[in-house]
Amino acid sequence: MGTVDLTKKTVNLSKGEKINLSKSSDSGLKSIMVGLGWDPAEDGFIERQVTKEPGFIGKLFGAKPTTVTERVRAKSTGDIDCDAWLALLKDGKLISGDNIIYYGRKELITSNGRVIWHHGDNLTGEGDGDDEQITINLKGLPDSINGIIVGVTIYQGKTRRQSFGIIKNTFIRVVDESNNFEICRFDQGQIADNKDALTFIAGKLYKDKGEWQFEAVGKCTMDESIAAAANHYSYK
Predict the structure, then answer these.
(1) How far apart are CA 122 and CA 135, in angstroms?
(2) Check: CATH 2.60.40.10 for 11-43+76-233?
(3) What's the burial of 175, exposed, middle or buried (CB within 10 Å: 0-12/13-18/19+)?
(4) Whole-model pTM?
(5) Distance CA 60, CA 80 (A)
(6) DSSP state, 105?
(7) Which one, 117, 180, 189, 216, has least CB within 10 Å?
């Protein structure tokens, strides 16, 4: 990677904001690195909404199920395995499972060579900087791919009683690989809208009139696996 251009300034995005990535490079944006990071929260407790069924006698008298909030201690709060993934879309839809890039399918290889590669799986979330990185050769992508969802899912989150309620300092950033310049950054901080969430849709890359854009999505879901989260974008 080259030297950072100090004449440029990183754009800090808020949830829902967009940026034209292609306009960030005078020579044409060719390859980007998407970096994602997170830290275990100090508080090892999470709150869950639990539906409780009435007992046999209660049912006889017409009692209805009730929803209560339980506060439980999360297991292994210092060892949270968050997995970054991409869903490669054509006109907003996932064509096949082969278009999901994650720790188990780290590369997309086309006639242009390796155009996407996942740099590896961080099993704990500890340490400064990016926890996981994915490189995307925008120029080498097939024309059929014009959208990319960037997500993070907690591995076995439900089983381990882990959710984004015990994760802090969540961020996504996009870096121009030609000069190591951080084009934009989206810091979510605390996941406020749904602390029980098991998946976080961090951002979306999409092509508009031949130029690549990035949207800071910041959406939480209850999907327990990468496959379940990516399935929302598949053809029904």
Answers:
(1) 16
(2) no
(3) buried
(4) 0.80
(5) 44
(6) B
(7) 189
* pLDDT digit string, tens, across residues 40-84: 765 555 555 567 776 766 666 677 777 766 555 554 445 688 999
Percent of the chain whose pLDDT exceeds 70: 78
Mode of pairing for the β-strands spanning 66-73 and 45-52:
antiparallel
Burial track 55-74 (b if 16+ CB lie within 10 A, e otherwise): eeeeeeeeeeeeeeeeeeeb
Q: Where does residue 129 fall: left (phi above 0), alpha (psi -120 to 50 degrees), or beta otherwise?
A: left
DSSP 21: S
- Report the chain's terminal Cα–Cα distance, integer Å: 41
| CA-to-CA separations, 190 to 44, 51, 158, 183, 233, in angstroms, rounded | 14, 26, 19, 23, 26
Residue, of 168 and 131, whose pLDDT is higher: 131
Let me know: does 186 contact 34? Beta carbons within 8 Å. Answer: no
Q: What is the mean pLDDT of the chain?
A: 84
Please tell me the distance from the alpha carbon of residue 178 to that of residue 54, in angstroms, as a whole number: 62
Cα angle 221, 93, 157 (rounded to 5 degrees) comes to 25
Distance CA 72, CA 85 (A): 28
Q: How far apart are CA 224 and CA 222, in angstroms?
A: 6
Three-state DSSP class for 180?
coil
- Tell me if residue 1 falls in helix, strand or coil: coil
The tokens for 176 are 């121009």
Cβ 199 vs Cβ 229: under 8 Å: yes
Q: What does the block give as tokens for 30?
A: 């060719």
Q: Round to whole Å and give the CA distance between 39 and 152.
A: 13
